């Protein structure tokens, strides 16, 4: 069997176009553009690339982009003061602080300083609590994008066995919560899981988010499983996922490629969340 390749790039382009149209309608109604503020501390080159592409995509989707680049030695109080200013700014509907932050900053305290109504990354304790409790709110972009791809591929996910590999705040934990809300039976596996292959073999849906190149092997998979590879690992100058692609593609029913799978969905969902926040704030 040869797996269907899930075209996240095309899906994301379509989603961005739909959000762009809805954002134009928002502007016509509200008399202002929906706005996204992105805060980057320091000069990590990979983060700078992400932030630039987020800004471009925001403008292309008929929204206003506010970029704040702060020096690497910015102190906690200055960063929190900027967030307070953005929280109070009516032109700003969404706030994203690019992670990771330089080591001297308290990431949890910084994220918690974002107004939950503007938390388009879904990372504040309020947003995470809402997701855990099943209350409607803003959801982290990468898991949301992964869920949209799964629902597009499989339709109703009710009753499916799903495994999420990795328990990060950014991906694994919210992904498990979203799949649970979608009525999957969810296993959340991590670095201490015993006999991972045994758990993967039972899963109709596999979401790999461990950050280790080729960690998940094709022979572990249940034939016909749908595989979402969230990993982006740099190997020999190229990008590879957390799933051993060739082995998995011969067993899975469908699989996301790296690049061109989940990656493009993250920015598309960020734009979607920004517009959602704008609508809620405008009432
Ligand atoms: N760094 C890598 N991915 C992300 C993300 O989705 N959100 C934020 N804030 N930082 C990131």
| Strand coverage percent | 15-25%
Strand order of the largest sheet: 1-11-8-7-5-6
- Any idea of the CATH topology of the largest domain? Rossmann fold
Task: Kindly report how far apart the N and C termini lie.
Answer: 50 Å
What multimeric state do the chains show?
A: single chain
Please name the fourth-level CATH homologous superfamily of the largest domain.
NAD(P)-binding Rossmann-like Domain
Largest sheet: 6 strands, parallel
Name the average pLDDT. 97
Which spans have pLDDT < 50 for at least 5 consecutive residues? none
Give a count of the beta strands, DSSP E runs of length 2 or more. 11
Explain what this protein looks like in three dimensions.
- This protein has helices at 8-30, 45-60, 76-88, 107-112, 125-133, 141-154, 172-181, 196-200, 245-249, 263-282, and strands at residues 4-5, 35-41, 64-70, 94-97, 161-165, 185-189, 205-208, 226-229, 233-235, 238-240, 254-255.
- It has two domains: 31-115, Rossmann fold (3-Layer(aba) Sandwich), CATH 3.40.50.10860; 141-263, Rossmann fold, CATH 3.40.50.
- The protein contains ten helices and eleven strands.
- The protein is of the alpha/beta class.
- The strands form three sheets. It has a six-stranded parallel β-sheet with strand order 1-11-8-7-5-6. A three-stranded parallel β-sheet has the order 3-2-4, sandwiched between helices.
- The site of guanine (GUN) has 9 residues, from strand 4 and helix 6.
């Amino acid at each position: 069997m040869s797996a269907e390749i899930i075209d996240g790039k095309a899906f994301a382009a379509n989603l961005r176009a739909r959000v762009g149209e809805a954002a134009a309608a928002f502007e016509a109604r509200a008399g202002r553009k929906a706005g996204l503020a992105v805060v980057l501390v320091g000069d990590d080159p990979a983060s700078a690339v992400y932030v630039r592409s987020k800004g471009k995509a925001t403008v292309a989707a008929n929204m206003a982009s506010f970029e704040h680049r702060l020096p690497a030695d910015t102190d906690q109080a200055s960063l929190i003061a900027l967030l307070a200013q953005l929280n109070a700014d009516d032109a700003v509907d969404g706030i994203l602080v690019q992670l990771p932050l330089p080591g001297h900053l308290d990431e949890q305290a910084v994220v918690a300083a974002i107004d939950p109504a503007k938390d388009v990354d879904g990372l504040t304790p309020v947003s995470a609590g809402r997701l855990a409790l099943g209350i409607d709110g803003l959801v982290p972009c990468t898991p949301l994008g992964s869920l949209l791809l799964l629902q597009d591929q499989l339709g109703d996910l009710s009753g499916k066995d799903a495994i999420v590999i990795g328990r990060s705040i950014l991906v694994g934990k919210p992904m498990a919560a979203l799949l649970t809300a979608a009525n999957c039976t969810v296993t959340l596996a991590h670095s201490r899981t015993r006999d991972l292959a045994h758990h993967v073999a039972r899963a109709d849906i596999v979401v790999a988010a461990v950050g280790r190149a080729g960690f998940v092997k094709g022979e572990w998979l249940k034939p016909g499983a749908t595989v979402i590879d969230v990993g982006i690992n740099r190997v020999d100058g190229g990008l590879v996922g957390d799933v051993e692609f060739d082995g998995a593609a011969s067993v899975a029913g469908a699989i996301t490629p790296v690049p061109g799978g989940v990656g493009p969905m993250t920015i598309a969902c960020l734009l979607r969340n920004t517009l959602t926040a704008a609508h809620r704030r405008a009432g």
